[in-house]
Specification:
Elements: H1 15-18, H2 22-28, E1 33-37, E2 42-44, E3 52-56, E4 61-67, E5 73-79, E6 99-104, E7 106-112, H3 113-122, H4 124-150, H5 153-168, E8 172-173, H6 177-184, H7 188-200, E9 204-207, E10 210-213, H8 216-222, H9 226-237
Antiparallel strand pairs: 1-7, 2-6, 3-7, 4-5, 4-6, 8-10, 9-10
Helix pairs in contact: 3-4, 4-9, 5-7, 5-8, 6-7
């Protein structure tokens, strides 16, 4: 099931890895493993020693969630093909603060943090790339804090659906309303009313265990500015890593098929 990655970086379906220079790929590429996991897989919990870095591929997604005393787990960051989790912000194996959970199952690249630190030690440009990505990830967390405090549930719901669609490159999201309500930290009945309103507006469709974006432009008009702010920061710091609208989501009529975005 697991095999060493032997590909040119421009053929890799993770944008952060695709940004590696050839000599950096020669160092890190052979250390990467092909790995897969279903939706709901817990990669680490608070207090666990983080042993691997994971790079989502294609339409895979990972959520960072903060666990509260009342049992709720609130999402603070969503990571897809633009990034990675585990030992990227920190240096080496350290206890985890949050829960990392596979939000959309599929394929990933995985690397042992010992190997990742060895690769960083051999390449200044590799360390520089991951440091810049860490800045982008922290910006997303900061924006999430402000968003949760300042914006309505409708705005936050629209924002999350847009972010997930951009990161996966698909308009069909395998997600229950209960799961989305839990991540947003709101009641199931409250979110149901928001979803009903979005459906009435014609911007989404819902089915059993799925939400489909029908009108990305209309959904974007209802969302807060937070997803755009994160995308803009990625573009300023790591141009081309965050899936661009023209490569990920069409402005008005759904999602464009793209591998490059």
């Amino acid at each position: 099931m697991i095999s060493m990655v032997e590909r040119a970086p421009d053929l890799v379906d993770n944008n952060l890895l695709r940004a590696l220079r050839a000599h950096d790929w020669a160092i890190l590429g052979p250390r990467l493993e092909d790995w897969s996991a279903p939706t709901g897989t817990i990669l680490h919990r608070p207090g666990d020693t983080v042993r691997y870095a994971f790079f989502p591929r294609g339409s895979s997604l990972i959520s960072y969630l903060v666990e509260l005393e009342d049992g709720r787990a609130i999402e603070t960051a969503l990571v897809g093909r633009e990034g990675a989790i585990g030992g990227i912000v920190s240096q080496g194996r350290l206890p985890a603060f949050s829960r990392a959970e596979v939000q959309r199952g599929g394929a990933f690249y995985r690397v042992d943090l010992h190997h990742l630190e060895e690769a960083k030690a051999r390449s200044l440009t590799l360390r520089y790339l991951f440091a810049r990505y860490a800045d982008c990830l922290m910006a997303q967390v900061f924006q999430s804090v402000a968003c949760n405090a300042a914006h309505s549930i409708e705005q936050r719901t629209a924002k999350w659906l847009l972010a997930a669609a951009e990161r996966t490159g698909t308009d069909d999201l395998a997600l229950t309303q209960e799961q989305l309500a839990a991540m947003l930290g709101v009641g199931r009945s409250y979110l149901s009313r928001v979803i009903h309103d979005l459906r009435q507006r014609g911007v989404i469709e819902t089915g059993r265990g799925r939400i489909r974006v029908r009108d990305a432009g209309g959904l974007r008009s209802l969302a807060c500015e937070c997803n755009h702010a994160v995308s803009q920061h990625f573009d300023d710091v790591l141009k081309g890593v965050y899936p661009a609208e023209e490569n990920g989501m069409m402005a008005t009529s759904g999602i464009a098929e793209s591998v490059r975005g």
